[in-house]
Design brief:
It is built from 12 helices and 8 strands. It is of the alpha/beta class and 257 residues long. It has one domain: Aldolase class I (TIM Barrel). An 8-stranded parallel barrel has the order 1-2-3-4-5-6-7-8, surrounded by 5 helices. α7 packs across α9. Bound molecules: 2-phosphoglycolic acid. 2-phosphoglycolic acid binds next to β8.
Length: 257
């Protein structure tokens, strides 16, 4: 991480886990543990139903709250969807967009990721845009093309100022929830590639300012090595974010890294 140049962000992605009382209990455990995180941004991205509880539970602390998705229209006949304004009105700061589970199971495309990212930015949210290759894409040696395509399409027509408020999460799909982590070198290689694409699309200074996270089975045991890499500026953590001590170990690795 280059903490002197860009923000380190450790974000939990709780996915479809925790009822409201469970969410409150987990945050109560996390809060004192991460209170000394200093410059490292600590975020919990929680199910929509937990947002209000999570915001109330973390008020006045250094834990920021994010949602796990957002719709791109402002309002209207979109049954079951949640708009960016609905999130900001609650006090939500971050939103995960284009997670591979949404791409795989819910028909998310780069076009909709781009629309959601623009809507989030327009409302003042900080999007965490997820990209990553499938296992067979890596095996076919097209990781670079896949990532370049996703970054270019997902960030289409987004200004340099806005991209500086955008977090990119590199999450190789084969590493998510599988216990198979990318090696620190594999993570660094793709995070550096993402930064070079940002430099091409924008400019060097802009690319240096963007936080690029690694995600995919990051845990208490492997976080220090991953976070020691120059272009890995944090983590998007699934399973390990549901255990306060493990999540805190990752936060502390970022603090010390
Ligand atoms: P995992 O999930 O840490 O459980 O692999 C990461 C993610 O999906 O963001």
């Amino acid at each position: 991480m280059k903490k002197n140049v860009r923000k380190a962000i450790i974000a939990g992605n709780w996915k479809m886990n925790k009822t409201r009382p469970e969410a409150k209990a987990l945050l109560e455990e996390i809060k004192p543990l991460v209170a000394n995180a200093g410059e490292v941004e600590v975020v919990a991205c929680v199910p929509f139903t937990n947002l209000e509880t999570a915001i109330a539970a973390t008020e006045g602390t250094n834990v920021k709250i994010g949602a796990e998705n957002v719709h791109f229209e402002k309002s209207g006949a979109f049954t079951g969807e949640i708009s960016a304004d609905m999130l900001t009105e609650l006090g939500v700061e971050y939103v995960v967009i284009g997670h591979s589970e949404r791409r795989q199971y819910f028909g998310e495309t780069d076009e909709t990721v781009n629309k959601r990212t623009k809507a989030a930015l327009a409302a003042g949210l900080k999007p965490i845009v997820c990209v990553g290759e499938l296992l067979w894409e890596r095996e076919c040696n097209i990781t670079q093309e896949v990532i370049a395509r996703q970054i270019k399409l997902d960030l289409y027509d987004i200004s340099a100022e806005d991209v500086k408020r955008t977090v990119i999460a590199y999450e190789p799909v084969w590493a998510i929830g599988t216990g198979k982590t990318a090696t620190a070198d594999q993570a660094e290689e793709v995070c550096a590639l993402i930064r070079s694409i940002l430099s091409e699309l924008y400019d060097e200074a802009t690319s240096q300012a963007v936080t690029i996270q690694y995600g995919g089975s990051m845990n208490a045991a492997n976080c220090a090595e991953l976070l020691s890499k120059e272009n890995v500026d944090g983590g998007l953590i699934g399973g390990a974010s549901l255990k306060a001590n493990d999540f805190n170990t990752i936060v502390q690795a970022a603090v010390n890294g």
